[in-house]
UniProtKB/TrEMBL annotation:
Name of one Pfam family that matches: FMN_dh
MF annotations from Gene Ontology: FMN binding; oxidoreductase activity, acting on CH-OH group of donors
Binding annotation for FMN: P81, S82, A83, S110, Q151, T179, S285, D318, G319, G320, I321, R322, G341, R342
Keywords, comma-separated and alphabetical: Flavoprotein, FMN, Oxidoreductase
Classification via Gene3D superfamilies: Aldolase class I
CDD domains named in the record: alpha_hydroxyacid_oxid_FMN
Residues covered by the FMN hydroxy acid dehydrogenase domain: 2-392
Positions of the catalytic residues: H287
Highest taxon of the lineage: Eukaryota
Protein's name according to its UniProt entry: FMN hydroxy acid dehydrogenase domain-containing protein
Length: 402
């Protein structure tokens, strides 16, 4: 159904983004791997979890502030790293970074950004209070500093990888999120058919010294055979290191003082190995259903990861978050905060920096309303994220249609 009138939900912004973006960009952003089972599962799994509300609890005050790796954030919502944001809006990653910084929400910048990591850091360091006419709740909250992490793809060329790490630290990024679910690229059918990074854009974190690493998504040249891989997949196979293993986490720790987070863990076993490798955080993620199709929805995988980590590191989640109530469920099951991928791109496509703020604020408001309507587990004082416990959830029976 087409959205009419003012957009009021993330799905309205999704439809508006689809209408505005080129087919090339939309398909790249929207795609999941193969049959997109996991992509759909991410959202569906949230809808099978029910909230058990309490009533008559004085919910007049709700506080959603928290912290990640010891840094305060305004609410448990951040921007997941997504590549090539300038296909969505000319201001791309700078707009996302300014939106997140001004709302004091964390952003993870992709290695594959179309703006250099230094320029993104600069853009977000000076968020002019009045860069965008904004109501009070959008304005910089001086008590909290912006949180910006860098997402790392480990290149076969370790000198390139090391340079990225050093540049991220020098530019003020405060953690590295190492993506571990992408030793090779998942098969996204639309990208195999046609993806091309527009010729005026580059992977901006690679300079002339890294020639060959700026260009991605070269279209297939005519050939008697049908394309078997996207230009993106070919690039990944050439450049990204598929030998990556837990030993490399130790190597990364030896070359940087930045805390390391692994992004893309879905099992208790890997969560335990991650902690033993000395990481500070784990992102439960299936890459938005874009890598191995058929893996669990992230909200299904979260409890076993939380149990295995057992408080030894922070646990975050991304994948399929489209409502404040999804965030509530993730927090109840032990996530410290969540990250959103595609919705940031919809906000960008809708209206650049303001569009991203609109998306983030909508989710923040929905989370607050959800917490208030769900009541609270302790009956005195303001409701906080700590009050959201697994006991506030129940599970819908899966009804067989046979
Ligand atoms: C268009 C697009 C590009 C992405 N690029 C990256 C990337 O460069 N690095 C990375 O670690 N994850 C990347 N991801 C995965 C996201 O960080 C995140 O795991 C996922 O989008 C979360 O699911 P959601 O889109 O349902 O919120 C990308 C996702 C999308 C949709
Ligand atoms: C190495 C892959 C970079 C982009 C990406 O992560 C994605 O398209 O999902």
């Amino acid at each position: 159904m087409a959205a009419t009138g003012t957009p009021v939900s993330l799905s309205d912004f999704e439809k508006l983004a689809e209408a505005r973006l080129s087919r090339n960009a939309w398909d790249y952003y929207a795609s999941g791997a193969d049959d997109m089972l996991t992509l759909r599962a991410n959202q569906r799994a949230f809808s099978r979890i029910r909230i058990k509300p309490r009533v008559l609890r004085d919910v007049s005050a709700v506080d959603v502030r928290t912290n990640v790796l010891g840094q305060a954030i305004a609410s448990p919502i951040g921007a997941a790293p997504s590549a090539m944001q300038r296909m969505a809006h000319p201001d791309g990653e700078e707009a996302s970074a300014r939106a997140c910084a001004s709302m004091r929400l964390p952003m993870i910048l992709s290695s594959w950004s179309t703006t250099s990591l230094e320029d993104v850091a600069k853009a977000a360091a000076n968020v002019p209070k009045d860069s965008v006419p904004a109501p009070a709740q959008f304005q910089v909250r001086p008590d909290i500093k912006p949180v910006r992490w860098f997402q790392l793809y480990v290149y076969k060329d370790r000198a390139v990888t090391r340079r990225l790490v050093e540049r991220a630290a020098a530019a003020g990024y405060t953690a590295l999120a190492v993506t571990v679910d992408t030793p090779l690229l998942g098969r996204r059918h639309a990208d195999i058919r046609q993806f091309k990074l527009p010729s005026y854009l580059r992977l901006a974190n690679f300079d002339d010294a890294d020639s060959g690493k700026q260009n991605v998504g070269t279209p297939h040249t005519s050939s008697a055979e049908e394309p078997r891989d996207s230009g993106l997949a070919v690039y990944v196979a050439e450049q990204i290191d598929p030998t990556l293993s837990w030993n490399d986490i130790a190597w990364l720790r030896s070359i940087t003082h930045l805390p390391i987070i692994v992004k893309g863990v879905l099992t208790a076993e890997d969560a335990d190995l991650a902690v033993k490798a000395g990481v500070s955080g784990v992102i439960v993620s299936n890459h938005g259903g874009r890598q191995l199709d058929g893996v669990a929805a992230t909200i299904e995988a979260l409890p076993e990861v939380v149990e295995a980590v057992a408080g030894r590191a922070e646990v975050y989640l991304d994948g399929g978050i489209r409502r404040g109530s999804d965030i509530f469920k993730a927090i109840a099951l032990g996530a410290r905060s969540v990250f959103i991928g595609r919705p940031i791109l919809w906000g960008l496509a809708y209206n650049g920096e303001v569009g991203v703020r609109t998306i983030l604020r909508l989710l923040e408001d929905e989370l607050k309303l959800c917490m208030a309507l769900a009541g609270k587990s302790f009956d005195i004082g303001c409701q906080t994220l700590e009050d959201i416990t697994p006991g506030m959830l129940s599970y819908a029976a899966v009804v067989s249609r046979l």
